[in-house]
Amino acid sequence: MGLLLHFFKWDKRWQLLHKCDILVKRNVKKQAVSPTKLAEVGRLLEAKEGKYDTGQLFLHRIFGYRGVILFPWTARVYDRDSDNPKKQTTATTTPTPTQCAKEASPLRVNAGSSEGSGTTATSQLDDAPTSWHASNSATDTQRATNLGTAKTTTNGATSSATDAKDVKGKTQTFYQVLIDTRDCPYIRAQTEAVTFLGNQDSNRSLYAIPGLDYVAHDDIMPYSSTDKHPLQHELFDKFLTNAPDSEPPFVGQDTLKAWQEKNHPWLDMSDVHKETTENVRITVIPFYMGCRETPASSVYWWRYCIRLENLGELSVQLRERHWRIFSLSGTLETVRGRGVVGQEPILSPRLPAFQYSSHVSLQAPSGHMWGTFRLEREDGYAFDCKIPPFSLESKPDDASTPPIGTPAGEESD
């Protein structure tokens, strides 16, 4: 698999391919004698400077999956590279697609074979796992008590953890989107990353809403389709309806607005943190999940989404993680472990990104997290890639009914 044209790392020059046909290639089993077939998915549209509307179809610029926009979020992005001139050139270096920018040739995307009707417009992967489960993500913050906790003064802990507060946040638009279920097995990102707590005190399970993601404005590649059902997801027809005279030709139903309002506490995003080390950029988005009250204590839960992206020309592999977790209660915990979510992903120029979600709990309403990933480059050079510090802030609990989801596993502590 993989892109025949390494399209998604081409900065914003893909805008020159305005109104190009998007074609996808379905893989054929080695034993088959029939030739590879191309099927048209849609037609690329010009990128917008302003916000995209609900119902806009798109390809993800990094992961290549098909999706549809549900609604926008406004987030504060704390980019430590933008405040460090020495890092700016490293963090923004991308290939220049001079040859194809001059010709409006069709975009052909490799895809895995899918059963039934439709085609799979994915950009990756040969080595991707066939499924992801949010229950696995909980293992990233195994803050096991056998590691012990270190008492520290509030001033001493926050001085290193809140370094991100000195970085000026810039407002950017992100989108809540649905992912085409046919593409889920072929992308290097968890497709059950949106999780929430069960509302029963005796229930320690996390629940997941499959096929949701958060996508930055610059990662949206809009396209149009004449298909009345261009996306396969169980919530697509519940949230959107076809409106041929509208642009985009899909509009939100009342159920989408009601769902957004009801589930706002589990979906709300506010801060995004970025930092680049040795051509590897780490992006972190924290989410507050709620508080679970017990007669003995109150436990506050957060999830955090992390993307690792290789901006260099040499492949790197994630080997270890090292977390520091500070709680307002005055504890500082250290977590070390192999890989993330049971994986040691390779970030190559062809498959440069990997994204996952995990969880953390504190017995205090706020805290901070920071740390490093130990990465090994293909030439043998190993280095620690900084995870930008980010705050864990609680919010007033909302009494609304939790969203419909599927059990994602036990909560980790």
From TrEMBL:
Region Disordered: start-end pairs: 81-163, 389-413
Gene Ontology biological-process annotations: error-free translesion synthesis
Any one annotated GO CC term: mitochondrial nucleoid
Domain of life: Eukaryota
ApaG domain sequence ranges: 274-399
Database matches in Pfam families: DUF525 (PF04379)
Polar residues: bias regions: 132-162
Family matches, as SMART domains: YccV-like
SUPFAM superfamilies: ApaG-like
Composition skew (Low complexity), residue ranges: 87-102, 111-123
One Gene Ontology term of the molecular function aspect: DNA binding
PROSITE patterns: APAG
UniProt cross-references to NCBIfam families, sorted A to Z: PRK05461.1 (NF003967)
Xref: PANTHER family: F-BOX ONLY PROTEIN 3, POLYMERASE DELTA-INTERACTING PROTEIN 2
UniProt-recorded name of the protein: ApaG domain-containing protein
Organism in which the protein naturally occurs: Drosophila virilis (Fruit fly)
Gene (name only): Dvir\GJ22698
